[in-house]
């Protein structure tokens, strides 16, 4: 099998991203001892799993290809970035050969599926960056024309959700690509795949991203129990509500406190009306695009619920827009073309 490919220009890398379903990129430096420590492992795996036009292992010298490194925010070497269908899917930093071996081994099944013409969607790379779990790619609402679902750019393991009921789901379920169990008809015995607030109706969710994003739309799915559900004989205060007022804050380095979120001026404050929810319990919320152009993190503050109860519920969240690295690589192609003009 073919080995790794050394990237010679920004346009070279762009062509490889467009021409392969799965790209594993090693950002390295010839003078870096940590880069040398994992070089053999990377070459062994590239020799075993490279597939022309399907799976590519590439090496990017950060000294020679500074524009590419800058576009993907590579600040230390070695850094390994995994791309699926041209989109950044995962990132591994550091020179631990065992960690890299583990990540690449878990990719091997995906590689084999791609080679056999299967869907090749892996359950996760195992690096722990926490991209949303895969499954049937359920959508609560149609995507705006010209934009894509960029939820997979969320660093799930670094997300933080405050005031969440510990007896319901964890923050990870919000980004699950599977259809919410509440829409499956009938009551499920599976783990609860939604989140609810705990002591009052407020929630604070911090979401950092793997790369800078342009955000166009926020899709929130909330499916409170219907009036026919009398499970646990819940009183009105315990029945969760849909969110009504939310505040969004951008580019915060960490989560806010509730008092801080109450007092701060939001990037955008949104009132969700009853008419905004579709039949699948999803509100399609357009964002003020000019204010969401270069976003590295998002804080979502659920201020109150749509009613008199003391709990709010979220089943799914989707971020719709453009991944920042795609925009940057478009600029890099022009840079790469300049010498030949």
Automatic annotation (TrEMBL):
Domain of life: Eukaryota
Family membership: Belongs to the thioredoxin family.
Provenance organism: Dichotomopilus funicola
Ranges where the Thioredoxin domain occurs: 1-109
Domain PITH: 139-339
Residue ranges of the region described as Disordered: 114-144
Keyword Disulfide bond assigned: yes
Alphabetical list of InterPro entries matching this protein: Galactose-bd-like_sf, PITH_dom, PITH_dom_sf, Thioredoxin-like_sf, Thioredoxin_domain
Gene3D superfamilies associated with the record: Glutaredoxin, PITH domain
Signal peptide: none
Transmembrane segments: none
Gene Ontology annotations for the cellular component aspect, listed alphabetically: cytoplasm
Keyword Disulfide bond among record annotations: yes
Protein name: PITH domain-containing protein
Keywords, sorted A to Z: Disulfide bond
PROSITE patterns the record matches: PITH, THIOREDOXIN_2
